[in-house]
Every structure is written in C-alpha cells, then in structure tokens.
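Thread: sanity check for a docking pose with MGD

Original post by kr_44:
Hi all, I'm comparing my docking run against an independent structure prediction. Below are the sequence and the ligand SMILES. Could someone generate the full complex and paste the structure tokens? I mainly care about where the ligand ends up relative to the chain.
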Amino acid sequence: MSGTSSPHSGLSRRSFLKASGAAAGALGLAAAAGMTTTDGWLSPAEAHAEAEERVAHLCHQFHCLTGCNLKCTIRDDRVAMVEPSDLVDEHHRTICLRGISEVQHIYAQDRIQTPLRRVGERGEGKFEQISWEEAIKTIADAIKEAQKKYGEESVFVRKSTEAGIDFDFFGALIKADSGGEWGLDRGQPNGTACAFGPFSYCPNRSIWEFTDASTIIELGHNPLESGIVWSRALMDAKEAGVHIVTVDPRFTGTASKSDEWLPVRPGTDAALIQGMIRVILDEGWYDEEFIKENTSLVHLVDRAAGKTYRSAEAMCPNPAVVSLEEVGAPHVWDEAAGEPRLYSESGVQPALEGTWVIDGKEYSTEFTLMKEWLADYSLEWAAETCGISQKTIAALADRYANNGPAIIDFGLGGPDKYTNADVLGHSTSILVAITGNYGKPGAGFGFYHGGLGADDPAATLNAWALPEEYAYTTCGISMYDMPYKENPIRVALTFGDAFTLQAAAANDTLAWVKSLDFFAIVDIYHSSAVDYADIVLPACSKFECEENVKALRASYGHVMLANGMVQPLFESKSDLQIERLLAAEWGLEHLLPETYEELARFMLDGVEELDPNMKGITYEKLLESGGCLPVAGAGPDYRPDGGVDEIPTPSGKIECYFEYLSDFGHQFPVYEDANEAYEANPLKEQYPLYFMQGKTRYRIHAYYTSNQWFQENFGPYVNISPEDAEARGLSTGDKVRVFNSRGEFKCGVHVNPSLQPGVLFMAETTYTRYYDEGFLQNVTNSARIERAYSLYFGPQIPYNDTLVQIEKA
Ligand SMILES: Nc1nc2c(c(=O)[nH]1)N[C@H]1C(S)=C(S)[C@@H](COP(=O)(O)OP(=O)(O)OC[C@H]3O[C@@H](n4cnc5c(=O)[nH]c(N)nc54)[C@H](O)[C@@H]3O)O[C@H]1N2
Ligand SMILES: Nc1nc2c(c(=O)[nH]1)N[C@H]1C(S)=C(S)[C@@H](COP(=O)(O)OP(=O)(O)OC[C@H]3O[C@@H](n4cnc5c(=O)[nH]c(N)nc54)[C@H](O)[C@@H]3O)O[C@H]1N2
Ligand SMILES: [Mo]
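Reply from moderator J.T.:
Ran it for you. Here is the predicted complex with MGD included:
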C-alpha cells in the first residue's frame, strides 16, 4: 500500500530531504542533532510547474474534543491547503484556525526528524542522530534490564491524550505501570460522581438541546476558546434568546457573548452555588415533588452516627463503587403510616422534613440536615466570599429555579483545578437536585462539548483487544505522586510530553525524571520534556502515514477514515509502526494490527448489523464516500432520552448526603478555601497574585506551539490587569519574571483589562524553548490534600490553585 498515495512525476520527498539538508546550519542545536531546516518545504511546492495535486480527507486533532474532518489539498505529497470538509453535513461543517493553518505546523522547524540519543546532561538538550534500529534496541534493552533487576512494575509507559487516542498497546504488552489515576478534569466530577453516578459529568443529554433551555450557566467554562467548534450550539442558543450567564474571573470570549458576566473570585465558585442554594431554600423555590421522587433528601439519617437508616448495618462506602445489596435499602418517614418505611415500598409518602425518635435514636431527613448545614452559609457570607453581590446571586437563583429549564455547563479547566473542586461539584449536584433541573429537555449539568456526553447519537466501533494477560498495571502510586512518594519506577517511556503537560510543579517532576535510570519519548515536535530524554523517537503527524489510510474515528456525528495520507516526513514513523517495532523486541508484534487498514477494517467489521446508527457504514463505503459518513440521526435535531429514572447510584436516586465522607465532616459540601489561592492566605504577603491558566484557541495544550504564525503573535505571555501592571511599572511587551517558592519563569507581559486586579492569566502551555527562561509549569501547585484520596477519581492537580509575584525582568 505504501507509496500509492504519492505517485509523483515531479520532485520527490527524497530530493526535498537532500535539498533542505543544505540549510542545516540555521538551526544551531537542532542541526547538531542531525536536523535539517524545514524552510525548503513550503515554497518549491507552490513554484512547481507540474504539480501533482489531489484531495485527501484527513482527521484532525482530537484533544480540543472535536476531531474535525479536514479537506486537504495535497501537492507533491505535501499538504498545501486545508479547508472545511465538504463530506460533513452543514451543521457539523467546521474548521478552526488551528486546522486552517496546519501547513505552518506540519512543516515547522520544531519537528523531530530522526531518532536521537542524548549526549549532554539531562535537560541540556544535546543530542546525536542515531538509526531507528539502534534507538529501538536501546529502549528495549533499558526496559528489559529494569524488568529483570527490579520487576515489571519498574517500567512506566504513558501516552498523552492526543498520542493515545487511536490505540495504546505497547505499555499493556509489557505490563507497564500507566501512572494510575489521571488527576485531570475530574475535580467537580469527584463531587458529582456519588450524587449522579461516576460519569455524570458527561451530560446525559445533547449539547444541541441548548436551544431548549431558558438559562445556560457557563460555570468556569470558556467554550469560545476550548470548544470553538461546539460553541456553535451556544451561539444557536443565543440566537434563540436563551439567557446566558458566564461565571469566570476573566472577561472571556464566552463572557463577551453572554447576557451576564459574573467575575467570581478564583477558587470560590462553591460559595456562589451555596449562596444560590441558600436563597432557593429560604424562598421555598425548590421542587418538592422532584425531590421526593428522585433524590435521597427524604432518606432518614441517624443523627448521632451520621449514618443513613438502611437495611444494612455498615456505613456506606463511596456510593459510586457499591451496589444496593451491599449497602442496604434506605428508609424514609412515611407520613401516611407515621413510621419509617423502605423508600422503595409502594404507596409510601415520604416526609421532606422532620426529626423523629425511633428505637431510642434520633433520626432526621437529609433535607432537614441540609438546612442545618446551610445555616452556616448566609447569602452575605456567600457574596463576601465569592465577590458577587447578594442581589446578583439571588437573581441568578431565581432565574435558575423559577424560569424554566436551565443548564449548568461547567468547565473541566478553570474551577476544576483547585483542591476544593469536589466541594463545588457536590454543591452543584445539590442545586440541580433541589430544583429538578435534570432529566428533561433543556435541563441538565456537566461538561457539554466533546461528545463526552450524548451530543450525537452513539456510534459502535469494535475495539482491538489484546489477550487478557497483557494489561497495564499500577504500582498504586499515581503519576502526580511519583515525585513525592516512594515508588518502584526506574524506566519511563512516554508518547507525547506527559511529564511537563500533565504534572504541576515541574521542578519536582523533572528532578524525579532526572533521577530515573532511563527515559525515552516518542513525539512529533521538540516538546518541553524532550530535553530530558535519553532517546527521542520521531512520530509523524496526523497527516502522514506509511500507508494510504490512518485513523478511523467516530467523532462529531460522523465516522471518519483518514485516507490519502502524505508519506511520513524525514525519518518519522507512525505510532502504530513504532509500537510494532517495540513489540517486536518482545516477539509480540503479531498481537498488534499490521497496518492502520487492518485496524480500521476490524473496527468496522459487522458494526452495521450491531448498531442501527451505523447502517451503511463499512470500510468500502467510507472509502467510496471520500472518508466520512454521518452516524444515523446526527444533527441539531438529535435529542437523546436522558431521563432521571436511571440514576446509577445504589439507591437509584440522586444522592445528596455523602456518608462516606463523615471522617472529613463532608457529608454535605462544607465550604473550604482552596489550597493556596484564597484571600486570607498569609502567603499573599509574598505572592499576592492569583495565577490562573486556561485554554487558548491557538493551541491544544502545548500542541501548535511550533506553528510559526501563532508563535509570532501568541507566544508565551502573562496577562495582567492595568492596575497591577501600573503598580509594578509594567507595559505590554515588557519582559517579566513570575515566581513563587516552587520556581520561576521569564517571558513577555500583556496588560489586559479583561482581568480583575489581583489575577494573572496565562494560556497553558508552550514549549520551554520559547520562554526567556523556565516555563509556567515551574510555579504551578501540585498539592494533594488528604480528603482527595477518598474521592472517586482521587486527587486532582490544582494548577490554578497558585499564588505568585511578578516583576519586571
Ligand atoms: N483550544 C483548546 N481547546 C481545548 C483544549 C485545549 O488545549 N485547547 N483542551 C481540552 C481539554 S483537555 C479540556 S479539560 C477543556 C477545558 O475547557 P475549559 O474548562 O473551558 O478550559 P479552561 O480554559 O482551562 O478553563 C475555563 C475558564 O476557567 C476560568 N477559571 C479559572 N479559575 C476559575 C475559577 O476559580 N472559577 C471560575 N468560574 N472560572 C475559573 C478561566 O479563566 C477559563 O476561562 O478544553 C478542551 N478544549
Ligand atoms: N499549568 C497547567 N497545566 C495543565 C492544564 C492547566 O490548566 N494548567 N490543563 C491540563 C489538562 S486539562 C490536560 S487534559 C492536560 C493535557 O495533557 P496531555 O494529555 O499530555 O496533552 P495533549 O495535548 O493531549 O498531548 C500532547 C502531546 O502529545 C504529542 N502528540 C500529539 N499528537 C501525537 C501523536 O499522534 N503521536 C505522538 N507520539 N505524540 C503526539 C504532542 O506533541 C504533545 O507532546 O494538560 C494539563 N496541563
Ligand atoms: Mo483536560
């Protein structure tokens, strides 16, 4: 198959390589490492007289949670132009500026061109070029040696999300440690998991239903940057007259399109939500019928023991992990009978409020206990804590409770990245539960966008499985703990730069990485962690492959098969072939698909019969179509069932009272300051500024850093309010030093009136090589509080929970 996509009569890839090699001197370190400049890749294609031109439909990056189909003009086996796909229905037809400028990215100077071996110190970034054979053997030898000396659990293999979206075989084949709990994007979900079920942060209804809502609250979510393509649904809602409220310390793009912007103080959203709950209870705006029918708030609780009156004796552990049989059925106070009855008994009329003595023990309903808990939280306190006025909180509560269906669309960035995010998620769950804004059109909560929820009809694809004995293991210590807790890891292999993207407090992380016996990375670009690797392997981009086809994906309402690939640039290889080369060192490559074509054919085999949504989608028909077919029923009219009758908790009800957190006193979401980012923190004397990070439309995390157009205008810079800038004599374009006790970095500064005084903002992240010194991850917070280990998803990395100082460099 290889080569059939590039039958050129003109200049071949090989001759380009030779031609561009002449300019190798321009790159300094990179040239010493055997790299050539990529300048030559752009102009000759345009100038070529007999250019061979064709169109290919390729799949774009996934980690902005879309994965667009892209129409690419390929000239002389090089991507020359990228446009929105014409194979996609009008409503899903999209492209963003990252897609449209891919040409600048694919052929960027940061591409890793050949396998490299480190020759300097770790972190120095000095390499020599080596052969694939030698590189693969060096990695395999290091892994085998560690396995022999220290056991299988000494080897760590982890893929960055973008690098692992299509498959992740090799780590499982060698039973490596995968880094345990993710520690990302599960902060609020830690609070909603027990209430509505583990994966309730993925909405059970569709984003296209935004138009059915009366109100949408964007809670620390900035879809106009973090979900550009999905934000179409928000704009549809705006056009339909839906009232949109954005809660964000910054005046974001999303705030600018909203009816209201609430500039909350960083890390205090739980106080805002608790203020709303307080108003709703005081005013009697709750939905009593919904509460009685669908929530745990009518359960009886033994006041002294803090334990729900159930048919089982033991305290209920995390309800997300147990069944009704294990914990016993809850009782309510039956008003008809005047005695406790099983909630599940027919004809029971549960009391909402009250306290009764049963067998000498005092019992109250959860609702009564909730009111007692809330007694500590006045509206005045809420307003003072979160920085939003009492009047505004009360008006929002009114709108949310009394004005028709409402949606809370929370971000997994922003407020999720503080140590108190579970308190926010739990509070939001209670707000939703008492108002009944769930399980009906135009109502719900969660992280809308990204097909994580029920945005488009489900599409069934077969999963390529390895024999059962081949599976990742975990040493019991998650990656975020590895720099701090004793662990068996000696050797690491990452696909993508997981170490500097996914871990905070980079000085700690990288000190740990330096202490390892061996570290290898497979990446497309010279990302930040590359400098620390012993061996670097060049992966090819999403636009390149040894064969004609590559990724098969179900995304954004369509099934797409990337086809018409460009040959891998330089000496890069596809991830599949890299995994196969590694697997071959263990004689296990036969367990992997030989080609992307084999994988895609397998994934599609028989799905037409299995799933009515997949009707008409076969490998052949996909190729005939150009590479993209709609899943049946996709489009803005799609409405999933998404009801309230199947809450996957032991009781089948929305659980508001978290018995399992009694040891921490968190049965209800007791308000808690963030770890570092709070007003009364004495540390503010030294480091007075909140340092928030977030997504930018110009990058997916660090990816696209290498795009020259973006680099020229949107390199690493810190945003600061005019007030804070003036106090420090800073103007836009100045160089600054940002620092705290964990570390520092130097880069440019932008004075930006969209920020409130006291708050800095920076887009995460950019490769270290573009900073003047260090990078933002040097200052971010890696604290893991004790309670977090009891939560469903474990501790969350609190990047935003960070205080810093800034000065002119
Ligand atoms: N372009 C682009 N899109 C992406 C990604 C990307 O890298 N680039 N990454 C994807 C991923 S992995 C994720 S998790 C999602 C995340 O999607 P979002 O959650 O929308 O992402 P963020 O920009 O991190 O955070 C959202 C907002 O939270 C605000 N914020 C910070 N602290 C607080 C706070 O205490 N309270 C409130 N209310 N707001 C606060 C920030 O100012 C920011 O505007 O985006 C996805 N989409
Ligand atoms: N300070 C701070 N840090 C943060 C955040 C924050 O808000 N603040 N947000 C966090 C969030 S929400 C998340 S989800 C994580 C994301 O962290 P990751 O999951 O690690 O990020 P990705 O962007 O998915 O992965 C990008 C890496 O994979 C490489 N790559 C891309 N495509 C491929 C491929 O096809 N093959 C191979 N081999 N490599 C590839 C890229 O070059 C890059 O090194 O970052 C977190 N980091
Ligand atoms: Mo994320």
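Residues 132-150 form the longest helix (19 residues). Hope that helps with the comparison, let us know if your pose agrees.
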